[in-house]
Each structure stands twice: as structure tokens, then as C-alpha cells.
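Annex B, item 7. Sequence and C-alpha cells for protein A, then protein B.
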Amino acid sequence: MYDSEPKRRASTPEITLRQLRAFLAVLESGSFSEAASTMHLSQAALSGLVKELESRLGVRLLDRDTRNVSASPVGVAFEPLVRRLLGNLEEALESVTNLKELRRGVVRVAAPEPLSCTLLPELIARYEKQNPGIDVRFEDVPIEQVLSRLHSGSADIGFGPEGVPVDEAIQAHMIRADPLWVALRGDDPLAEKKSVCWKELSNRPLINYMPNLTVNVLSNVPQRHHPPRIISVHRVNTALSMLRVRHGYVVCPSMARDLVEGFGLTFRPLSQPTVTWRIAVFARHRSSLSPAVESFLDFTLNTPSV
């Protein structure tokens, strides 16, 4: 008894969109011949679609006589359900098309300072100008949260130092190598120079906001030129604010020039040695990216000034 049910179901034709559209076409025209013409089918083919639908449902949907065709009581109740189903399908297909053609979509971006207040605002503005239908949502968070958000799915694209370790789920793309400059108080004697070398800073405390400073920066500088003291903070704005009122220096990528000078500080190139801050964009593998996210990633990778 239990084996016969799957066999019966397997032999019954499935309902198709053509069957549903044929049913509505007959109701709208009141005629099989006119409905067949509308759907570019023969009358026999259209009649077959309606009969298959009725057979699948096990009810009569249309009342027919020699002159007229109209909905049966079941057909009257079934008609609005079919219209709603086809309407929802068209809406879903239109939504997918909009996403594919970048007329609509969301990209969630996360980045730490100083990228959040230097590179990202302009990059996002330029992307949105080219893709006005895409909503780019940006959060400035510590680099540790950038990666955790990518893993949890609460962010689609992340930015940060290239040296941040990632696992096989995340891909890192190096997009820029920015030389490090030094921020100084205006009354610091070194502010009169056009450039500053690391040796000249060796008697000043470093106010540092950069994670992994030793690996990413100081490993490239002779140890005898390392700062005698490091004052650690979490944000570049905090470091620059502290420098305004105390002796020391802050190291920033050159892209932060407007930010540094906005605090009334002097910004000079750092040399001997020149150390670069390598910036990466992080994302999951392309196969898991939406069209909008993939578009933003490609825009970032192909923008020369990034």
C-alpha cells in the first residue's frame, strides 16, 4: 500500500508555468482560439495545457459550452492565487536581474583607521557615483573586527594592513604600498626640515596606534633608531590629538596628509630607511560574492589611485 503512492505521484504531470498562463489567458479572452493566438500556440496545444492542469489538480477549472468558456467555482477561487503566484515570480526575477545588472544591491565594507578616514570615503564616493543603485554601508572598526565580520558574514569587503594573517576562507589582495611619513608638532625643530630620517627621531617617544607595529614597521628600521618609549593608543585621531599637547611623533601613511594637517601638525616624509605601509583588500572567494560585492572588489582592484 505504501509503495503505490510514490508511483502514482511520479506518473502525474507536474504543474508548469505554461499551464498556469494558459488558464489565465482563456479566462482573460473568454475563448480558447483567442487565448491560443495570444500565446502563439495552436488551439489544440492550448487546450492540452489546460486539460493537463485540470488533470494534475483533479478538478475542473473551466466550464465550456459551444459558445462560451468561463471559470468554474473552483476556477474562480484559483484565479487570484495564480495571479499572485505569477506576480511574485516576476517580481523575484526582476529583483535578480536588478542585482545582476547592478541596478540594486548592498555592499558592506569594514576598515580600521586611518583607512576609514583617508582612502575609503573617496573610494566609496567614486564607486557610488558610477553605481547609484548600489548601497555601500561602511563601518570603521579595529582590524581584528574586520576579519571577524568577514567570517561571520556581517561584512562583505574589508581593508587593512597586508600582513594581517588570514585563513583559506578569505583572500587578501594588495592594492597599495604607501610610504610612511612622520607627524610632528609645529614647534619641533625637525618640522623645519623637508624630510626626516629615523635616526633623528630616536630620542622622542612614539605615539602609536598601529597594530603589529614591530612586525610591520620597526622590523624595517635599525634597532638603534627605535623609539625609547612607545605610547600605545587605539585610534589615529587619538594619537594626533595627544601629539598636539605633548612631545613625540606619530607615524602615518602618506595618504593621511590632510588628516594630519587638519590637526595643525606638520607632516614630513620619513627616510633612511623608507618604510612602506602595504594595504590590502580582503574578501571571501569570488564564487560566494554577490554581483554588487564582486563589482566593488573589481572597482577597488582596478582604480589606479587606490
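Protein B:
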Amino acid sequence: MLERKEISLASAASHLIVIRCCERRRKIVLTGRYTIEEISPGEYHVLSVESETLIQQTKFSKIEVLETNSYGRGLFLDGRVQNVQGDEYVFNEAMVHPAMFFLKKKCKTALLIGGGPGGQCRELLKYGFIKKVYHAEIDPEMVEISRKYFSHVSRGCWDDPRCELVIRDAFAFLKETSEVFDLIICDVSEPSEGSPANSFFTEEGVRLIQQKLNPQSGMYVTWAGPANPRCMELTSRVVRTVGQVFPVCLPYYIYTHTFGTSWISMIATSRPLNPLSESPQTIDEYLAKQKVRDLQYYDGVTHYNMFHIPKNARKVLYPQMNTDEHR
């Protein structure tokens, strides 16, 4: 039974929290340094912090590198968790490998927008047939910090001759480039007032992305937001916006423990696509044939689970549809 709760909230990711509770007549006192992030109204996700390695304000965001007790080193932007060592592979693998399985050797050129410490760039470069990966990052200080503190994530991907690191506003880069991409992955920070990330959550931004994709087979991957039905306003808006531009949109389900809630990403394309047309065994055999190794999350069975979104989330995403049929 909760006896007393004292929480200090501020804008930074790491806060001092003191919780006093009574359990079976035994008083438990938790004191220390914790991250605290609001998941939905009245609901918070908390990680215990061992130490603060870096706190740095850049032109674009407040960057914190924190050593968490449970998951290791973490990257936080403006108080929001972005990447934590213990389970960064979940989100990074999930953002790359489903689309790469669908595209196969049709994917020669890819653009990664955002993506911070380089985990998704790392995963893309596991495919030997990829000829070029452009990694667009707006904040040069993010790259410097990632090189220094998150080499365990990038694993040398930026030094691969197939990778070109583009330090500039990705929206401006897309407007000016004559390159046509087989795959565009968008992993920018959450949209907020004045953020350059906002452009990628508008119909104009999604249409620009569509124009830069290979018209025959190009695919767009973006996160949409939480899969918690209590806080899916952003998720629903992103799914609707992308759906207004692309004729085929396939949301899928990810659970990254350090996000504190399940998450939805989506693949969009202009051609018909059945995400479950191949068996789990076929997916596993394909990954083995391409020598895609060291996967900790994605395989054939996981692929099948990802494209079965729970009914309560489907009801929010598709309120006008029979959710028993839309799976």
C-alpha cells in the first residue's frame, strides 16, 4: 500500500526521486538518481542512474549520456530516452530488417534520417548488396558524442566506404538531392514546437519522401508512436498522415523495454505487399544466406509477431474498421 510519494520533476532526464512506501508493514525507502519520463497521463517510466557521464546543450537539443544500473549507458535527448545499451538492438533491428526482407537485393541505396548513434546504419550495412547508405544527422555534436560514447552502437559503420555521413537538415537535403532511394528510414526525435523534426510528420514532408523513392519498389519506414491505447494520439496522426500519401501502409509492433511502453512503426510503399506471405523458416534462411549475423531480436518468428498488432491498439488506429478482420 502506498504511504507517501515525493517526486521532483524538471526538464532534465535525471532527477532525484524519493519514494516511501509501506509493503506488508515494512517500510521501504528508495533514494537515488533516476530518469523519469511520462508515458501517458499519470504514468511514468523510471530508470535508476548510477552516474552522469555527459550533459551538453547543443543548438538543437539537450544531450545526456547516463549510466543506468539495469541497462548500461543511455542516450537521452531533452529528457526522452533514445538509445540504451542493454536493448538498443530491439528498435534498431526492427526499423531495418523487415523492410530489407521485403526489398531484398532491390535495395541498393538507402537514406537514414536521424538515427543518433548509428545503430540502424550498422544494421543496414550488414547486407553486402547495399551500395550506398546516406546517414543524415542535423547535429554535428550528436555525431561527435556518439563517436566518443556510443562506439558500441555504431561499431565502425561511419567508417564503412559505403556510408556517407551528411551533417545537415535532412529535409533540405531531400529537397536538393537528385538521388533516388530504394529505402528511406526516418528516426528523428519526437515532434515538438520549433523542432526541425516536425517537417517529417506533415503531409508535405511525407510527399517529399515519396518523391525521392524508387517509384517501382521504394519503401519508407518511420516510427509512429506508442501502442498504448491511452496515449496514441501521435501514433494515430502519423499513421493517418502517411496513409494519405502512400497507398500501402503496414504498421507493426515493437517492444523496447527502456521505452517503457510498446511502440508502433510502419512501412509504407506504393506497391501491394503482404507482410506475412513468407514463412518464418524462409525469413531465417534468407538472413543466413545473406550472412546477416548477430541479430538479437529479429528473425522469422519475431517478424510474424510484429505484424500482429493487438486488438486494443488496432481499434485506436482503425476506429471505422472491423478490428477482428484488420490484423
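Comment on protein B: Residues 4-84 form a domain with the Spermidine Synthase; Chain: A, domain 2 fold (CATH 2.30.140.10).
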